[in-house]
Task: inverse folding
């Protein structure tokens, strides 16, 4: 488990991505709520 504080609602997605990069989760199933879903608009 992990937890991190974000600076407001707009930074929550980036904090989740940063946190996932620091965890050893290779081959693991990760679950998050719908707030952490996003669409890439490149």
Result:
């Amino acid at each position: 488990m992990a937890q991190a504080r974000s600076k407001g609602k707009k930074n929550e997605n980036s904090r989740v991505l940063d946190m996932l990069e620091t965890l050893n989760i290779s081959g693991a199933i990760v679950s998050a709520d719908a707030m952490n879903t996003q669409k890439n608009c490149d």
Q: What stands out?
A: Helices lie at 12-22. The chain has a mean pLDDT of 76.
